[in-house]
Amino acid sequence: MASIQVVTDSACDLMPATTEERDVRVVPLTIRFGAEELVDRAELSSKEFWDRVITGPDMPATSAPSPGAFEQAFLEARDAGSTGVLCATISSGLSATFQSARTAADAVADRIAVQVVDTQSVTMGQGLLVLAAADMAADGAGLDDMAAALEDMKGRTHVYGVVDSLDYLKRGGRIGGAAHLVGSLLSIKPVIEVRDGVVEVESKQRTRSRSLQYLANKALEAGPLDRLGIANGVAPDFEEVLELVRRARPEHELVTSDLGPVVGSHAGPGSVGVCFITKAR
Predict the structure, then answer these.
(1) What is the DSSP string of the chain?
(2) For residue range 115-161, what is the model confidence (pLDDT) as tens digits?
């Protein structure tokens, strides 16, 4: 195990095999269907989630992990021999998860050093930052240096997505300053962006095919990429987008993932996310 343990939350959408391989501890959020609460990953897989969304009567909702869940993860890292923890969370503008992690870090400060980074991102944008942190930990980087590097990369991290409808984002209150546009967007396929830690409508395209090409072009035209990830929210045309973005050729391997329950609860089925970190200039 690396001296510094990387911890994140399940909004990162990294596949369980990836987090296990990279020694990343994931603190799960909770998904609610009506009165039923399920722990992300532990009690609800991505496939089970999407099956319920598509066929079930209840719209999903999410809730942040408790400080106690983060405290347990931090202390387990200490007990396993780590000298510090780098915790990278979903944007504080989208969830109370960051505050829970900060509260937990304060509670364990006399037992293990913890740096909590608000990624100002979500899904694979957050996931790519977590992978960068895991690489640094494996290379023996110190806790403060890792936190400083992630703070720098945050400004070069971009998350764009295509959703079939803004209804899920509107219902969940995650549409940021673009809520007033919902009524005018019913006949088009919007491209959304995580900007300053919240979700905004970035572009209004007339057809889904044009919105998907626009989405891919964001990665292709961004300049040299350090990392690139693409997330699939049971989109029938996911492979088409994947083939388009392969031409971006990031420095690190392209990462694909399922859009998990946390983000899927707000994006809805048919969503595709393209996330990337540009190289430092």
Answers:
(1) --SEEEEEEGGG---HHHHHHTTEEEE--EEEETTEEEEBTTTB-HHHHHHHHHH-SSPEEEEPPPHHHHHHHHHHHHHTT-SEEEEEES-TTT-SHHHHHHHHHHHTTTTSEEEEEE-S--HHHHHHHHHHHHHHHHTT--HHHHHHHHHHHHTTEEEEEE-S-SHHHHHHT--GGGGGGGGGGTTSEEEEEEETTEEEEEEEESSHHHHHHHHHHHHHTS-SEEEEEEEEES-TTHHHHHHHHGGG--SSPPEEEE--HHHHHHH-TTEEEEEEEEPP-
(2) 999 999 999 999 999 999 999 999 999 999 999 999 999 999 999 99
**Cα 246 to Cα 241: distance, rounded to the nearest angstrom:** 9
Residue 41 neighbours by CB under 8 Å, 6+ apart: 10, 16, 26, 28, 260
For the segment 251-276, the average pLDDT, to the nearest whole number, is 96
The length of the chain is: 281
Q: Note the pLDDT tens digit of each residue in 43-66.
A: 999 999 999 999 988 889 999 999
Structural domains of the chain, with CATH: 4-154 (3.40.50.10170), 157-278 (3.30.1180.10)
CA 30 to chain centre: 15
* Confidence at residue 189, expressed as pLDDT on a 0 to 100 scale: 82
b vs e for 75-102, b when ≥16 Cβ sit within 10 Å of the residue's Cβ? bebbeeebebbbbbbbbbbbbebbebbb
Structure tokens at 167: 């209804």
Asked if 25 and 86 touch (Cβ cutoff 8 Å), the reply is no
pTM for this predicted structure: 0.93
